[in-house]
Amino acid sequence: MEKTLDSTVAERLPVRVWGMDSDGRPFFQNATAAELTLEGALIVGINHPLKAGDIIGVQHEDRKARFKVLEVVQTGALRKIDAHVQVLPGQRSPWHEIAVPGKVQEFIPGNKRKFARHKVLFPLEISFEDARRTHIHTSATDIGGRGCYVETLLPLPLGTRIRILFWIDEEKVKTTGVVRASDPGVGMGIEFTDLDNHVQERLQAHLDTLDTGFAAGEAAKGASHH
Could you tell me if residue 1 is inside a domain? Predict the structure, then answer.
């Protein structure tokens, strides 16, 4: 007989959580999922800053999905938060088979971080100290002044040190990085480890322009369709 879970039952599941925090730093940690529904849950014990609107990955056993943070709850514990999350459209929550539908929290915008992340396709090249290894030409799908997230089925191992090349307009930028989050079949979070503050700020301004241009283009496309 299939197990069901009433939304009032305090079922708790161990999960792994990863993504980019609100400071633009990739993270990967263990946490707990509670208040389970088909659409989402309360993720308990996150020790990285997040805000409403952030996208994170959550895995239970061999099932994983990406979620949007709807609301962040300050717990009072040092450097720990809880987060109400909702599964992204087209994905199935890792606890789908044991949960029942429940009410989700309203979207509550949080405060802006120092380096806001942008969900734009940003081309970059990854290389290694060992010149015999093949360079990787890819695109970040989530990037800020301090790091990025690259969606890939075959992420590099946790802790891998890499070299990164990208362009800000006509300027070629080279820096180093380290893989801070790695989850097979999903992607990897990369922290920029040798990017000067003024270069971080120029990158952030460039991303702001890209994101604004993308939004304007989408709005114009929608208007032309009407």
Answer: no
Residues of the chain with pLDDT under 70: 1-10, 76-78, 99-116, 212-226
8 Å CB contact between 162 and 126:
yes
Three-state SS for 83?
A: strand
CATH number of the domain enclosing 71: 2.40.10.220
Give residues with Cβ within 8 angstroms of 109, minimum separation 6. 51, 52, 53
Q: Are the C-beta atoms of 177 and 190 separated by less than 8 Å? A: yes
Full domain range(s) for residue 174: 122-225
pTM over 0.70: no
Say if residues 38 and 99 touch (Cβ distance below 8 Å): yes
Please state the separation of Cα 8 from the chain's center in Å: 29
H or E stretch at 223: helix 197-225
- CA–CA gap between residue 199 and residue 135 (Å, rounded): 23
Pull the structure tokens for residue 137.
């030409």
